[in-house]
Specification:
- It is a single chain.
- The chain is mostly helical.
- 60% of the residues lie in helices and 6% in strands.
- The strands form 3 sheets. The protein has a 3-stranded antiparallel sheet. It has a 3-stranded antiparallel sheet with strand order 4-8-5.
Length: 497
């Protein structure tokens, strides 16, 4: 590459988020904060939690003498506009969530790689290169005789190795080589999880490009429309879509998954794993789950974009969007035609009513603070209420079920009999809290009792009674209930104590 071309390329890259983050004055602080909150443990955080954690870290940095005068909301909004963060609103979520952009992930990985650099040339890396080249040469060879000859040589090698193992001559990888190889595997897997974000960005860009083509198509049936009306899934059938779909099928294949799980279990039982740090061991334990989670998120994005694009066309929404786009172009064309007739300083006899609404993100909303409108004369001491402990006890008895007394009543009944139903308990200990006692006994029975079934396979029932406010037995519908027949057993009395 010539120098002028390289310089132009690097100047263009200098304006991209990755380079801006690495070159910014506060780059170390921003990378450290984003890495600790959105890279090492969680991959996404709700906006409220993100603001709280960043605000707490900023307070700690200010206490150390660093100059961060603005609030966490302002810094996060700046990181979002700079392209260091992505903001999404997942379905059924109560608030928006933040996650690292692809540029921020690559910056963190680049800086971490510099800090934890490995040797320049390792045996495991060279082995991976050789194996990949040999596999590529074999899989692209169209000569039958050469392929058969290689398989026969491989068979002889395997037979010799089996014979050597049977004779007690078994070659085991040294501990240092095993550690080197497992670290390379961790690095490759970490690279793979980072690739998911780039694939998702490709899908998002492809979705935008297809929608722009729908807007810019002047004809009633452009190429994109023809494909969509023909039932072709343009996003899934793209190069990125086909590549990821093949990868996703391999990752979710039951046989491949079982092989991967078994291999991980075997590796984790080896002695050399104990020399890895806790971070690498945790990464190995969560490797399969992380791959499935990251791949599943990209797969969901792929399916969502495909469905939304089809709905965008089938519901004819693109026609309305195209009409608005055409109106904007007509307005621009008219403005260009009038630019020579109307001077910029000329007063126009036209009043344009502007809207006074201000659009804000949910994360920028601030809760109302009643202290801001507190009375200037201070807080006044209120008069003491005329209430005693008995009144408080009555209020508690009306609002809370007394499970302690109910358990004691059940244990008291089971001291004289081997089993007792809820009705038996109520005969000896009437419902002191009315319907609340019935509900409490049902809750205890569902957890510690046995539900009796009738001959038809349905739960057997019994009728229980409790007294009303006038302390008189009342067998009307308002003072009796039919409940499932539940028995408490003496063998389970310890569960109630």
């Amino acid at each position: 590459m010539k120098a002028d071309k390289a310089i132009a390329t690097y100047r263009r890259m200098r304006l991209q988020p990755l380079w801006r983050l690495l070159a910014s004055d506060n780059g170390p602080t921003v990378i450290g904060l984003l890495q600790s909150h959105l890279y090492e443990n969680e991959r996404s955080l709700p906006s409220s939690i993100m603001h709280e954690r960043i605000g707490r870290d900023l307070e700690a940095l200010r206490a150390q003498g660093d100059d961060f005068p603005q609030t966490a909301q302002v810094y996060i909004a700046n990181w979002l506009s700079e392209g260091f963060l992505d903001r999404r609103f997942p379905p059924s979520a109560a608030e928006e969530e933040y996650e690292l952009s692809t540029a921020a992930v690559e910056a963190i990985r680049f800086v971490s790689g510099i800090e934890q650099s490995h040797s320049a040339a390792t045996e495991s890396r060279l082995t991976l290169v050789i194996q990949a080249l040999v596999k590529l040469a074999e899989d692209t060879d169209t000569d039958k005789q050469r392929r058969i000859a290689r398989l026969e040589v491989e068979r002889e090698r395997i037979e010799k190795e089996i014979t050597s193992i049977q004779n007690g001559q078994m070659r085991v990888l040294s501990q240092s080589s095993a550690l080197e190889r497992i670290k390379e595997i961790i690095s490759l897997t970490d690279d793979l999880t980072g690739d998911f974000r780039r694939v998702r960005d490709q899908f998002e860009q492809l979705n935008r490009d297809l929608r722009e083509k729908l807007m810019d198509t002047e004809n009633s049936r452009g190429e994109v429309l023809k494909s969509l009306f023909a039932g072709i899934d343009l996003i899934s059938d793209s190069d990125a879509g086909r590549t990821f779909s093949a990868f996703w099928r391999l990752l979710t294949d039951p046989e491949q998954g079982a092989t991967l799980d078994q291999a991980l279990e075997n590796v984790m039982s080896r002695e050399f794993v104990s020399e890895l740090d806790i971070k690498d061991r945790r990464f190995l334990l969560r490797m399969t789950r992380n791959l499935l989670e990251q791949g599943g998120a990209v797969h969901e994005v792929l399916q969502t974009f495909a469905r939304s694009l089809r709905h965008f066309v089938q519901s004819r929404e693109y026609l309305e969007q195209r009409r608005i786009n055409q109106l904007l172009k007509d307005a621009q064309r008219t403005a260009l035609e009038l630019k020579d007739e109307v001077k910029a300083t000329e007063a126009l006899q036209y009043t344009l009513t502007l809207t006074n609404s201000r659009l804000k993100s949910l994360s920028q909303l601030v809760l109302y603070n009643p202290c801001l409108q507190a009375l200037p004369e201070g807080m006044q001491i209120a008069d003491m209420l005329d209430i005693d402990h008995e009144s408080i006890g009555e209020l508690v008895a009306q609002s809370e079920i007394d499970f302690r007394s109910l358990k004691a009543n059940v244990c008291n009944v089971l001291e004289t009999r081997s089993q007792a139903s809820i009705g038996d308990v109520l005969q000896l200990h009437p419902a002191a809290q009315g319907l609340g006692s019935i509900v409490g006994l049902l809750a205890l029975g569902s957890r510690h009792g046995i539900i009796i079934e009738s001959s038809a396979g349905l739960p057997a029932t019994e009728t229980v009674f409790w007294t009303g406010d006038n302390d008189q037995q009342d067998k009307t519908i308002n003072r009796c209930a039919q409940i499932p027949k539940i028995f408490f057993l003496r063998e389970k009395i310890n569960e109630l104590i």
